[in-house]
Amino acid sequence: MNSTLRTRRAILDLQFDQPAGLLVLAGETGFAWRSPTRTLVTAGVAARIPAPPGPRRLERLAKVAGTLLADADGDIGAARGGQGGAGGAGVRSGRGGVGVPGGGGGARFADGQSGADGAGNAGGGVWAGVAPIVVGALPFDDRALGELVVPALVLEQAPGGPVVATSIAAGVDPPDPADLARRLVAATADFGRPVPGPPASSVHTTARTRPGEAGWPPRIEVTPCWERPGWRAAVEAILGEIAAGRLDKAVLSRQVLLEADRPFGRASLLGRLAARGSGAYLYASGGFVGASPELLVARSGATARSRPLAGT
User: Fold this and answer.
1) Contact indicator for 231, 252 with CB cutoff of 8 Å
2) Does residue 294 sit in helix, strand or coil?
3) Are 214 and 195 in contact (CB under 8 A)?
4) Tell me: the pLDDT tens digits for 239-285?
5) What does the DSSP 8-state code read for residue 280?
6) Among 32, 242, 280, 303, which residue carries the largest CB count within 10 Å?
């Protein structure tokens, strides 16, 4: 990609009715990330960065992304957006670093909160690293093709702060970010809203059924792939290997098969993970969705930090 990235920012007054908060706006296709200090979602694509197979491809990708972000133009204006119009004129990688992690609807613009903010200062450090950014998820197997993207819209919210919307375009002036955010709110309005469950007589007795929300299957059957006797035998075998000096540590994983009568909605899954407080880090990139209590690595400049837990 040879075109220079251009950005435009606006401060938005958004309110959320669900624990997922800003994450609900990721919908079924956007990138989402939440950590103890940062929450962001993205929509659309301003630029694509192919990740060809081969060794050390993360290093090669980092160089390409770094050059692309370093050449980006600053935002062409900042405004505060509210209902009825905007006033006035981002793997998750920003200019300063990169982070790797080991619902429902209800977003709305607040009433009567419009007006220019020429200073472009949202307070609470929310401006830091909002855009442009590169996001995505790559396969562990470096023989597989992958791709990272520069999103066309980045929405970021610091704890207790407003939402900063950044629109990004390659080689042209980007559109009004408040207008893009308003469209995204409208497009995701139904995610997570309650819908009637199926009649009790129409479901199998071994399935878990409940009134659900849009995008969530009303019928889910849960089958453990490893029963207690097999688990106990595995633990005893590991203890024997440790006692014999052939093993220092092992981590057993529990596999469960879930079968539903329709696909799981990604936005609903994110909302449920957020509501249950499942891990300090939530993420979604395409069909790769999950939660983790640990941070594998985060780099900012020359400083790298990690939050590993036992078993990593």
Assistant:
1) yes
2) coil
3) yes
4) 999 999 999 888 888 888 989 988 888 888 888 888 887 667 899 99
5) S
6) 32
- Report how far residue 269's alpha carbon sits from residue 90's, in angstroms, rounded to the nearest whole number: 22
Torsion angle of C-alpha atoms 276, 280, 285, 287, degrees rounded to 10 = -40
73/233: higher pLDDT: 233
Residues 6+ apart with CB under 8 A from 175: 8, 167, 169
226: how many CB neighbours lie within 10 A of its CB?
14
Which carries the bigger pLDDT value, residue 192 or residue 45?
45
Q: CB-based contacts of 257: which residues, under 8 Å, 6+ apart?
A: 222, 223, 224, 225
The amino acid at residue 99 is G
Q: Is the Cβ–Cβ distance between 35 and 17 less than 8 Å?
A: no
Name every residue whose Cβ is closer than 8 Å to that of residue 110 and which is 6 or more positions away in sequence.
13, 14, 15, 82, 83
The pLDDT tens digits for 201-239 are 223 323 444 445 667 888 889 998 888 888 899 999 999
Count CA atoms within 13 Å of residue 102 on its CB side: 16
Q: What is the 3-state secondary structure (H, E, C) of 133-155?
A: CEECCCCCCCCCCEEEEECCEEE
pLDDT value at position 153?
Answer: 94
The one-letter amino acid at 52: P
Rg (the chain; Cα; Å): 22
Inter-CA distances, 312 with 202, 252, 274, Å: 43, 12, 23
Instruction: Please report which residue ranges of 34-147 form alpha helices under DSSP H.
Output: 57-70
